[in-house]
Amino acid sequence: MDDKKGIINQQPTKVSGSHAPPQTGYYIVVGDAEHPEAKEVPVYDRRQGEPATKASIGQAVKVSQIQEAWCQVQRPEFNGWMPVAHVAFQPQPAQTKITWSKSNGPLYGKNGAPDPDDVRQGNLGDCYFLAPLAAIANTLDGKKLIMAMLRPKAPGLFQVTFCNINSKNKVYLNQEEDSVIVDSWFPLASSDNSKPATFLYCPAKPIHDTSIPIWPAVLEKAYAQWDPDGYKGLDNQACSRAIAHLTGLEPRSLHWNPTSTKQAKITWNNRTFAFEEQEDEMKDKMKAELPNVDPADLLLVLREASKNADAILVAGSLIKSKNDTNFLDEAYEIKDSHQYVILQINEDGSLLLWEPKAGQLKKPLPIEKFAQLFDDVLTVNCSQSLFFK
């Protein structure tokens, strides 16, 4: 389920950008450069003591204390010491009993830049983050924006910077405060040994396929590390806030109520955060008061916005069952409570859409259907991003 509205006032809180391990948190066992093929590492009975047992690479451990170059680690089957170099701090997964693995895939694909089809949603309700991410990657300045916010620091180590939002809904960029360091270890989806191991989250593809670009996985992981609740904190948040975190811009928005018998001329709202906060407070009452839209008017507004090659258009489908495995219209592949990217507006007024789980939809959606199945659109101009200031 992807509730596109989410909790409007809850946004990721920064964590330290330092890669030095904190004293407490979620850790996994990793190998070292000298033994890259190792599947286990020793667990010692005491610091600089004798090996007592072994821990599997990629399994989670509880770190109870860190003393100089050693840390005390615990699992149900052991309690001992390991060198700090053999553990890595990670954002808490949304699921339990997760194994991690390192990806050796390239940061970007053959063209050396982000591509929207590198993005695929995994077992996490974060279409609100991945849809705008793919939309940004679909524009020329958006590709540059992503490469500005994601900086390789060392082999398998990346610095990611997000923009933040203050209590007055002002979006700002502070690279020192809002940067996080992440590595190339990712949670695995559980599967039998007959199938390749896949990313549990984005990009939901084979993790050991060295042709799979990892930039969307790195950004999703950094967003999870930026959140105090890790990956679990990314479930069902506000798309408008994600766009601001990614671009440094408060998006403009269109809102309408497809069930209303009243119609009004639709225009872009420049105060999206304030509107959504009020909507969140009023719950369903304010939603009912919104007028419907004339599909022809909606088409004109969208077509005008799409003339800017660096503008993104992200649309939210209706929330009915709050379950994005359900279809609002199966023939057109429109899911409940889901975010879509408007890739193109055709001459006949139909829309070519993309969605995070399947990519580009097979059939263009008529504007009349779009007006019935969706109720908001968000837009920013990537060329105006704070990362370019």
Question: What's the structural blueprint in terms of helices and strands?
Answer:
Layout: E1 26-29, E2 40-44, E3 51-56, E4 60-67, E5 70-75, E6 78-83, E7 87-89, E8 100-102, H1 127-137, H2 140-149, E9 150-154, E10 157-161, E11 164-165, E12 171-172, E13 179-183, E14 185-187, H3 215-226, H4 239-247, E15 252-255, H5 272-282, H6 284-289, H7 295-306, E16 311-317, E17 327-329, E18 334-335, E19 339-345, E20 351-355, E21 359-360, H8 367-373, E22 374-381
Antiparallel strand pairs: 1-4, 1-7, 2-3, 4-5, 5-6, 8-14, 9-10, 10-13, 11-12, 15-22, 16-19, 16-22, 17-18, 19-20, 20-21
Q: What is the beta-strand fraction?
A: 25-35%
The Rg value, from CA coordinates, equals 22 Å
Structural domain tally: 2
Number of continuous helical runs: 8
Please state the oligomeric state of the protein chains shown: single chain
Tell me the structural class. Answer: alpha+beta
Give the distance, in angstroms, between the N- and C-terminal Cα atoms. 36 Å
How many strand segments?
A: 22
Q: Note the overall shape.
A: elongated
SSE topology string: EEEEEEEEHHEEEEEEHHEHHHEEEEEEHE
Low-confidence sequence ranges: 1-20
Query: Helix fraction?
Result: 10-25%
Strand order in space, largest sheet = 15-22-16-19-20-21
Determine the mean pLDDT: 90
Largest sheet: 6 strands, antiparallel
